[in-house]
Design goal:
The protein is an alpha+beta fold and 344 residues long. It contains eight helices and twelve strands.
């Protein structure tokens, strides 16, 4: 349930901000916007403001902005998308990705200045336990482990070293813990995962906060650095190629969001900022059906003095969309198979 809420929150936030960028830019250059929709499918609720219908629909993963000029018989409307200048339409096309970069900056600032930067304290206090793990039935977050098998422990590293040295022939490990001032003992049998003994405990996480001014600077610098790193990564994919297993599809992203949510809100927002940068960059790639392809067509129109015929542009976008759906299906299949392998 937590994973579902986290996925809807992250995808909803990223899509809403992206589409809000297109909406604001379209209105700014005088394009009439008929509808701003969050999600697809049946409407859950809607309201109209200044000629635009704002709606929330049943399927939360996605959204769209419907502008004047998208329906037949609107070619002569002054407020239609296609009747604006090349520069104005380019602003609308780029606005979604621009807002995703702005969102990344804001999320980083929130993490750095308000929630705090997560770090492992390294103490002998348990931060959390993995559901269904050997430790989950005995240990609780906040338990202080003072000894394992009568070996005193003061740091997380010492605990991990003792647990990983466990041999199945030894029987259970005896954990001595302090809980709410009371001394308790638990016999826990570790499980062997890839030849390593584990009991299913996570370290205590602390949060380091910086001042707002410092956080703003860090938010901008982190966004610039990650954007540049992702652009370099794309360049390497083009020049050196990429293994299919290195890419993640929708299922893989959902899994990563779920894992990030287990690390707390700061961890989830940090990951959401990274996804927002990814979305910004990917949408500007010159791939049919993405915002980047619109910029390519606009550049062609600027050079030629006239645009590509709507039928031809629509056909190219249709082919590109079909290829994108095919890629998503392939990546989804790889994600599912990867999860099956990980879970044995």
């Amino acid at each position: 349930m937590i994973t579902f809420i986290a996925v809807v929150f992250v995808f909803g936030l990223l899509v809403m901000v992206h589409e809000a960028g297109h909406l604001a830019a379209a209105k700014r250059v005088g394009i009439a916007v008929y509808e701003f929709s969050m999600g697809f499918g049946p409407k859950l609720f809607a309201f109209t403001r200044r000629g635009t219908l704002y709606s929330v629909r049943a399927l939360p993963l996605g959204g769209y902005v419907r502008m004047a000029g998208s329906d037949e018989g609107e070619a002569d409307l002054e407020a239609a998308y296609q009747n604006k200048t090349v520069g104005q339409r380019a602003i609308v096309a780029m606005a979604g990705s621009t807002m995703n970069l702005v969102l990344a900056v804001v999320l980083f600032i929130i993490v750095f200045s308000i929630l705090g930067i997560p770090f492992v304290t390294g103490s002998n206090v348990i931060g959390s336990t993995l559901p269904g793990s050997p430790a989950a039935a005995y240990l609780l977050p906040g338990d202080q482990v003072v000894a394992i098998d009568n070996q005193p422990v003061q740091t997380w590293e010492e605990m991990v070293k003792i647990i990983q040295s466990y041999q199945p022939t030894r029987g259970p490990l005896i954990f001595q813990v302090i809980r709410a001032g009371e001394s308790l003992e638990f016999a826990i049998v570790p499980e062997i995962n890839q030849q390593t003994a584990i009991v299913g405990i996570r370290p205590e996480i602390g949060h380091h906060r910086v001042g707002l001014i410092t956080g703003i600077g860090m938010g901008f610098s982190q966004t610039v650095e990650l954007t540049w790193a992702m652009l370099q990564g794309l360049g390497q994919m083009v020049t050196k190629g990429v293994e299919p297993g290195d890419l993640a599809g929708p299922v893989g992203i959902v899994q990563m969001i779920g894992e990030a949510s287990q690390g707390g809100l700061a961890n989830l927002l940090y990951f959401a900022a990274i996804l927002s940068i990814n979305l910004a960059i990917l949408n500007l790639l010159p791939i049919p059906a993405l915002d980047g392809s619109k910029l390519v067509f606009l550049a062609i129109e600027k050079v030629r003095g006239r645009g590509v015929e709507p039928e031809r542009e629509g056909f190219i976008n249709l082919i590109g969309f079909a290829l994108l759906i095919t890629l998503v299906l392939i990546l989804t299949y790889q994600d599912v198979m990867r999860i099956f392998v990980q879970n044995g």
